[in-house]
Amino acid sequence: MASEPSPERAPATPRASLLTPHGAGLFFRAWSVCAKDAAQELRRRIALASVFFFAATALTLVSFAIGPLGVPPQARGAVSSALLWIILFFSAATGLPRAYVREEETGTALALRKVTAAPVVLVGKTLFNFCLFLSIAAVAVPGFAILLEWNVTNPAAMALVILFAGFGLSVVSTFLSALVARASQKNVLFVVISFPLLVPLLLSAIAATIEASRGNLAVTPLRVLLAYDGAASCAAYLLVTAAWED
Q: 3-state secondary structure string, the chain?
């Protein structure tokens, strides 16, 4: 009696295909990475507290050292806009560059490389850093406006500046964190590399903030910020595998 042919088995899905960053699963896995980072930070609380403590300290020192009466009225908009972005940048720099450094310090980097594709990790950590920056801005901008009596006559334009500049700052900081995560002098290397990359973003953000404080919508600086965000996102997405996994 001839044996019946066994049913053909479906070919096993290659492990690599489960880790590809394409398709709808990218955002689900990226959100999982973002939620993991948020849970870790909320458990520790020390890093988050240091970020907001730095922002509060910088605001207090600036308000006492300069204050609204120490700047001529005609120059108050430009000086206040520059000071605001200095505070936002250095406050963010105390927390955003730790995205990948945290994985190396806790010993979870190897496991994360094994189970998740590098672009997915980048998207998740950028999302967490962007949320962290928006939280910093939500505290720093109103505090700055109150302590220095700084009026923004076009809040909608200011919100666009915060969103566009904050996203670009988050993307670049996250990618550079992957680049310097395994270096011996992480903080020094991050500052040296980030300064030339972030200068165009900060200058455009300051120019757009000045116009927003005057009640205008700075179309050209906002276009520069949007183009910067797109270029930085594409470059980080293409290079993160070589920067973190190799």
A: CCCCCCCCCCCCCCHHHHCCCCCCHHHHHHHHHHHHHHHHHHHHCHHHHHHHHHHHHHHHHHHHHCCHHHCCHHHHHHHHHHHHHHHHHHHHHCCCCHHHHHHHHHCCHHHHHHHCCHHHHHHHHHHHHHHHHHHHHHHHHHHHHHHCCCCCCCHHHHHHHHHHHHHHHHHHHHHHHHHHCCCCCHHHHHHHHHHHHHHHHHHHHHHHHHHHHCCCCCHHHHHHHHHHHHHHHHHHHHHHHHHHCC
